[in-house]
Amino acid sequence: xxxxxAGGNRSFGSNKSFGTPSRNKGGAKTxxxxxxxxxxxxxxxxxxxxxxxxIQLYLQPPTMDISLEMFEDLAVQRLKxxxxxxxxxxxxxxxxxxxxxxxxxxxxxxxxxxTLAQFYELAERVETGSKKIPVATYQxxxxxxxxxxxxxxxxxxxxxxxxxxxxxxxTDLFRLRWGLLRENAPEELQLFMTASGLSYQPIDSQExxxxxxxxxxxxxxxxxxxxxxxxxxxxxxxxEAVDLVRVRRVLIKGGMAYIPSSELLSLVVxxxxxxxxxxxxxTCRALPVLEEDSRLVNLVQxxxxxxxxxDYGANKTAGRVLPQxxxxxxxxxxxxxxxxxxxxxxxxxxxxxxxxxxxxxxLKGIGLTLxxxxxxxxGEFIKRADVxxxxxxxxxxxxxxxxxxxEGKKKNWQPYDCMRIIMETVGTGENHGCPxxxxxAKTIRQRIESYDLKKEEVDTILKKVExxxxxxxxxxxxxxVHLKDLTTxxxxxxxxxxxxxxxxxxxxxxxxxxxxxxxxxxxxxYQSQDTQDTQDTQDSQSQLEMMDDSELIAALDTGNx
Length: 561
Known about the structure:
Shape: elongated
Strand order of the largest sheet: 1-3-2
Radius of gyration: 27 Å
Helix content: 40-55%
Number of strands: 3
Distance between the termini: 30 Å
Number of helices: 26
Order of helices and strands: HHHHHHHHHEHEEHHHHHHHHHHHHHHHH
């Protein structure tokens, strides 16, 4: 993938040809081979400059060829890293505290299927007491960091909401790295300042003495005379220190801000945010170039909705779930989205095809085999007067076998995650989707109250729903029902809700802090460019109603739905 023009850029390997990433053909290298090649072709700091600093402002895009598989792999890795920050920011821990930092480092180290420690092991030593990191390793990590950042920038430049999310969490990652380097490799910070052109010069002693009273007053925390004498102050345009100006912690004089060395991080973070925000807008303007390659368009447009959590495709329960157990399990162990579909099935003995996909994959994930799934759905559907065994086999059996990879593309489909369910379009008379997102407040209240919850608990959950925090609301619902918190605070997958409710997924301690006190951010809903408007959806609904499962799945396979 050519991330930028070749002019003025460093060449990252012996292959000087540039172009879009391509799929591996027969006999081509695997992703593991690509990773080894990425490490093998790096330029060390001693050889042609390499990557002179452990952190950077991402001003110069890389120019290199990588496969489409490697392109996607690096994008997903980076996305996982940023979502670790999002998770901990929602956990209630104070940002940048030792507890917050330790939790993030642990999540990155212990990430499955492969560790993400390479995204902070960017210098010879980054953790107190840790072993030295070989030069070749941290130089390769720096290259991975650079390439993955620019890949993800393509996906998160499209809307203001996406850009805001990306800038926020990239800034948190930058601040974490700065803190680790300050404690364990402070010389790297000076290398970064020099390489980034941020070599601010302190004011001279005469100017410092002349402004002494104003500088001490602006410090705002009772700076002593001794501390003042030891402190260095840097003069920069005030627009580069907006965060400090906003909280009135610096002196402004003649359009210049005087920054104490102890506040240098705020200054650098301001520069980082400003440059990244500006470059995201420029990247957005260049996006039409990607339209020439539909493979990249599809990947980039859907990356922000990509599920990066635990794989719930395999049965992780203590045993097999039988058809006769499903209804009883749904009453306490299913999240509201799945319980709603089971209730509809009990009442009408039928659910529409999108609900059959969503619910069928969920049941597959909790341990219902293909044979049992056929028995379960057939047993309910034939209770209707207009459905017999032959009609079930003709119109509905195909979709069930499809979920298990026996029809169509014959792919082992994974259960839907929360974001996929939240983003669904739900029409009249349909039961799929997320109740917290797609049902009216009155209906949600009635469903939650059926669990015999206290009024204040119901009101708190509904408040989160009104604010758009659907996954947080679902997590609070779990806490109220089971008197313990989810391990992650909020719900990311319906199968996570099920496993932890049965004590099979490492559920949170019942004495843990309630989700009601979790600090949250608004869950913005992103729409892809090719999303049909509401009228188009309504117009196509009648066609969908007339199709049986085999026709619907065939349409899905060919991309016509």
